[in-house]
Amino acid sequence: MLQPAAIDGLAFARTAGVLKGRLGMETLPRLAQSGCTGAVLDFVLTGEINERGKPGFRLMVEGSVRLECQRCLGKMDWPLRLEARLELASDEAEIQAADDDIERVVADSDMSVAILVEDEVILALPMIPKHEQCKAAAGAEGGPNKPSAFQALAALKKRNLSES
Ligand SMILES: [Zn+2]
Predict the structure, then answer these.
(1) Distance 18 CA to ligand 1 centre (A)
(2) 13 FRET partner, CA 20 to 30 A, in 1, 87, 106, 138?
(3) Ligand 1 ion: residues within 5 Å (CB)
(4) pLDDT at residue 105 above 80?
(5) Domain extents for the chain?
């Protein structure tokens, strides 16, 4: 796999640089920490001067991330496709002071592309990943009207109470 480069943020934006690549788990340590066990992410990073006259990036990421379903704890491959726009800020204070919805990063002459991509992917992932059709979901066996063991027990208790 291509080792992701670092870019000079402002120069990349001003020259409308284009960088394409593919990232795997070995370059995505925070994703690994968050329970993701596999990922292949293709990205295209483009430098731009946006309509506000500010330097920034456009980022497109497409790929798949392997997560753990929080219902059945099985593996699930989460298809990912995102597009983000980032504006470069001169420092953290500028980001804090900004009062709008524009996403910003501090410009640096040595910005890791993998970190930029990873940031956006983390934002795009579900808080609680679950299979859309999870085998552990109620109704997966015997249809949605089948009472669970717990419900059956509750009904039994109720009947005993009314008999006594
Ligand atoms: Zn599941």
Answers:
(1) 38
(2) 1
(3) 69, 71-72, 74, 131, 134
(4) yes
(5) 6-132, 140-164
